Amino acid sequence: MKNLGILLSGRGSNFEAIADNIAAGKLDAKIAVVISNRADAPGLESARRRGLNALVIPSKGRPREDHDHEVVAALRAHQVDLICLAGYMRLLSPWFVQQFPNRILNIHPSLLPAFPGLEAQKQAFDYGVKVSGCTVHFVDADLDHGAIILQKTVPVLDTDDDHTLAVRILEQEHIAYSEAIRIVLEGKYSIEGRRVRLA
Q: Do 61 and 35 share a structural domain?
C-alpha cells in the first residue's frame, strides 16, 4: 500500500474527501502524514480526529529554503510515495519539486490553463465563461502549470454567482482528486511532453 502525504493550509475539504475514499475502500492508499504551514488550519484538527499524524511546520517569517527542507525531511521520514496539495497556499520551490519528480499533485478549481492563481472560480464567473471545472495536475516549479492528469467540467448556470459555482466545482474536485491519485499510484499512465496518456 502506498503512502500519501497531504499538505494543507486551511480546512482541507479535498483532504477529507481523500480520507473518506480511503476509509470507504475506494482508494488503496494510506495517509502517512498531514502537514500544515499554519497552526490554525482546521484541516489539522480534522486529521487528528481521524487519528492521523498531523504536523505543523510554520512558514511565516522563515526563509523559504529552511521551511522547504523541514517539510521534505518530514515527508521522507514518513516514507511518502505521493504528495497531495490540498489548499496549500505556498508555491513550492524548484528544489522541493525536484525532490519528488512527478510525485506531487495539485487540484485547481478551473480548467487550466484558464484562470490560474487565486479565486479561480470568481475569475471564471467574472469573465463570463459558460463552462468551468477543476484540474488535477502534476506540480512543477511554475504556478498551476504541470502536466494535466484529469479535468472535470461544470456548467456555469444563468442562476449562478461565484459562490454557487465554487460549491459545484468543489463537488467535482472531491471526485476528481481521488481518481487522479488512483491513476498515479497504479502507474497506468505515461507522460509525453505536457500530455499525460492513460494506459
A: yes
Query: What residues have CB less than 8 Å from 21, skipping those under 6 apart?
Result: 27, 178
Same domain, 92 and 184: no
Q: What pLDDT is recorded for position 143?
A: 81
26-70 residue pLDDT tens: 999 999 999 999 999 999 999 999 999 999 999 999 999 999 999
Does residue 130 contact residue 155 with C-beta atoms inside 8 Å? yes
Residues 2, 93 within the same domain = yes
Catalytic residue among 108, 137, 145, 174: 108
Sorting pLDDT into bands at 50, 70 and 90, what band is 190?
A: very high
When pLDDT is averaged across residues 72-89 and rounded to a whole number, the result is 97
Please give the residue range of the domain that contains residue 72.
1-100
Q: Give the residue ranges of DSSP H helices in the chain.
A: 13-23, 42-49, 64-77, 94-99, 120-127, 162-186
> Residue 141's domain is classified under what CATH number?
3.40.50.170
Is 163 noted as a catalytic residue in this protein? no
According to DSSP, the residues that pair with 136 across neighbouring strands are 107, 150
- Copy the grid coordinates of residue 93: 520551490
Sorted by sequence, the CB contacts under 8 Å of residue 182 that are 6+ apart come out as 27, 28
What pLDDT digit, counting tens, does each position of 6-24 carry? 999 999 999 999 999 999 9
